[in-house]
Fold this sequence. Notes:
Keywords: Hydrolase. It comes from Pricia antarctica. This is Glycosyl hydrolase family 20, domain 2. The protein has three domains: about 5-120, Chitobiase, domain 2, CATH 3.30.379; about 125-475, Glycosidases (TIM Barrel); about 505-700, no CATH class. Strand 16 (about 395-400), helix 11 and strand 17 form a beta-alpha-beta unit. It has about 700 residues and is an alpha/beta fold. The protein is globular, with a radius of gyration of 27 Å. It has an eight-stranded parallel β-barrel with strand order 10-11-12-13-14-15-16-17. The protein has a seven-stranded mixed beta sheet with strand order 1-9-6-7-5-3-4, with helices on one face. A two-stranded antiparallel sheet has the order 2-8. It is about 40% helix and about 15% strand. It contains 22 helices and 19 strands. Helix 5 runs parallel beside helix 6 (about 195-215), helix 14 (about 475-485) packs across helix 15 (about 490-500) and helix 20 (about 600-635) packs antiparallel against helix 21.
Amino acid sequence: xxxxxxxxxxxxxxxxxxxxxxxxxxxxxxxxxxxxxxxxxxxxxxxxxxxxxxxxxxxxxxxxxxxxxxxxxxxxxxxxxxxxxxxxxxxxxxxxxxxxxxxxxxxxxxxxxxxxxxxxxxxxxxxxxxxxxxxxxxxxxxxxxxxxxxxxxxxxxxxxxxxxxxxxxxxxxxxxxxxxxxxxxxxxxxxxxxxxxxxxxxxxxxxxxxxxxxxxxxxxxxxxxxxxxxxxxxxxxxxxxxxxxxxxxxxxxxxxxxxxxxxxxxxxxxxxxxxxxxxxxxxxxxxxxxxxxxxxxxxxxxxxxxxxxxxxxxxxxxxxxxxxxxxxxxxxxxxxxxxxxxxxxxxxxxxxxxxxxxxxxxxxxxxxxxxxxxxxxxxxxxxxxxxxxxxxxxxxxxxxxxxxxxxxxxxxxxxxxxxxxxxxxxxxxxxxxxxxxxxxxxxxxxxxxxxxxxxxxxxxxxxxxxxxxxxxxxxxxxxxxxxxxxxxxxxxxxxxxxxxxxxxxxxxxxxxxxxxxxxxxxxxxxxxxxxxxxxxxxxxxxxxxxxxxxxxxxxxxxxxxxxxxxxxxxxxxxxxxxxxxxxxxxxxxxxxxxxxxxxxxxxxxxxxxxxxxxxxxxxxxxxxxxxxxxxxxxxxxxxxxxxxxxxxxxxxxxxxxxxxxxxxxxxxxxxxxxxxxxxxxxxxxxxxxxxxxxxxxxxxxxx
Length: 703
């Protein structure tokens, strides 16, 4: 793993022509490299150049830009050198040159009067986006189904892959229960595929196009499935895995019929052979393996799936998700013995091209929490996967986002801290993405006249901060400020700083709540799953019982048991509430006078900052109310109850501000966690009744 560095040489070359505002700079690009990624990079540079400031012409150019390959730099690294009017973009491979041209584009776009020589190399070689597909989907519902048409459109994927390349993500991982019948009609089991020949040709064309577009952008592609699932047609034809007929994504007992194992091996083999631009495959030992021990699950994998990889005409890369359950159930659990057993398999598995990657969910399904590793899927982890240092595999953390679907987010310091604390020698990267949200069709933006074509466009800073910092955590904030300023001239610094402040809110709330699987918390809506009752408001009484996942925070019961005193420099609930109040109030003040008239893009950016700020103050005041209420319960002193009511009244006022801000710009929308609420549409206004009822309940305690 190469050490990331970012060097800005102090000697700059002036662009002498910039003083003449009427004259456009002339650029000449010279490239003789026959590399598809380099060609893509140059085409992107050409097409996205500001033609009011630059012209491409080989006659007496102001700048001559040339390309070179130097493998000694390392894959994806680049060097921009400056000499007189010559700029040389050297890359360790085609992707390195692409990132170099992207850097040049940024420098030119910022109106620099100097061009800086730059050297960069990747901190992590594995920088992946997790993208769940809407067919054979993990979970069901309108919020997933409505993306089907968009996700079949190669125009969407061209745009999504462009975004990935721009932000330096280099792995696209595509997830669903059973992808294979959408890619091949196997010779041995044609009955597993329900598509006509014409339909199948369309699917094949789609996949070939997608994998080729990704490869041209220096992006690897992986198909990752859950087990044991088959196509509905195969289930019906052979009377097996009947849960697959209706896309049941979670079953207490998986079907281990030998024919399924053979069908899986055939499917894996033919997919590898048919799609040469597909980089690799990945597996999940769940959610259809109930009733099997961890050893039986691993044996099933080796006899079926891995056998298919062995039979293929080429080796591919491989992602092995660690077991989600240590027992026979399909729920989450961990154990040292299962980790050691899995480690023995990983140390000896030799079917993959290059090292295997294993995936571990950082803090279960809620990675937007704290850089402190409290747990993975199922619970706490031993050091079995990295002690001793593995040779046959590396580990990538999964940052699952089940908390921020609607509002914009960007918090660079959190990402930098995460990398600093968790970028160990055995870690080669990160996955980032959601299980219950697909960033394809933008059905969330309600107002017209925005520039957002797709869902990921709304969350542009989320992807930019994660992608750029996983490549180089020393990337300065100015890069993100400039990105804001290019979209909203004059507002870049203010928007960046305000968004960074309020983007702490979901991190703090989710850390405090210490949730587990997906629907136990949806931070953005301040709701979580209750049984019975569906997704409900996170209550004051629950808040009292919570012990935050990060030990630097004190819970309420612990705080009061210690006489309302701080312990060993840890943050008390009152200190936490005061801190949130302070930075959220500052963010509100900073954006208060932003003129959003006639610019709906800017309106959304500012409104989301305001929404996060009011949600943060709601949490802060409710936290104070919870402390005071617990003091009342312990002392029966009604002064504490009156204080609790005052705090909850303030909180309720801030929730109403959230409703006032969001109602004009967001219509009630389908969200996958709301499948528990009879598929009711989500909006903060729908939760407000619960907010008011809680205040009414607390006031009744005073009577």
